[in-house]
Amino acid sequence: MDEAPPYAAQSGISLAEPPSYSRAPESIHSYSLEIEGRKLLTLFVNGRTPRSVSPIPIFREGQPISGRIELDLKSPEVVKGVNIEVQGGMTLPGEDEVQFLELKQRLSVPTNASSNNANKKLSGKHSWAFDIQLPREVPVSWGAKTKGKATGREGKTYRLPPSFSERSGLVFVSYRLVATVKRGTFKVNRVYVRSASLAEK
Questions:
Q1: What is the pTM of this model?
Q2: If DSSP codes are grouped into helix, strand and coil, which group holds residue 199?
Q3: Euclidean distance between CA atoms 7 and 137, whole angstroms
Q4: Number of separate domains in the chain
Q5: Which of 40, 21, 10, 12 lies closest to 191, judged by CA?
C-alpha cells in the first residue's frame, strides 16, 4: 500500500481527535432542502465533532457515516426510491475532478409506492435510516478519464486522503453526501448535496 502525499487539514477546521465511536454521537448535523419556505427534504448526519467546532461533519477512514433522510410531502407524489451516496474527489489545476470514492446505499422503497402500481403515491412525512462504512484504502488510477473517473493505466492503492482545500494548493480533495429521491416518470429527481470532511488519521 502506498501513502498518499501529505495534505494539510481543511482550512478553518480543527481536527482534534474525536471521541470513540463506541460512544453516542456528540451532535447531529441537519441540512434541509426548502421549497416555498417548507422543508421538503432533510438530511440528518450523526457527528462526533460539535457544530461549534465544525459546521460540517468530520469523519475518519474506516469509520461509519450514519443518519437518516426525512421527506415531508405536502401533496401526494410518486417516490420510486431513495438513495444516499458518499463521494470523494480530487482536482488538479486546470483539470476535471477525478472521483476516487463512490459508496451508494439504496434505502427501502416505501411499501405504498410499489413499482407494480405507479398510481400509488406518498404524502406526509417519511424517514429512511442509513449507515455507510468508509474504507481505509482506495484504488486510484491515472490517465484518460471518462465521466470524471480515471480509466487509464492500473493505479495503486492509497490510504483515504484527508480533505484539503487551499487557494495556493496544487491538489484539492473534497467529500460530499448526496441524497437522491427518485420520482415518477417524466419527473426530475430531487438531488441534495452537502459537504463532509475527512480528517487526517
A1: 0.73
A2: coil
A3: 16
A4: 1
A5: 40
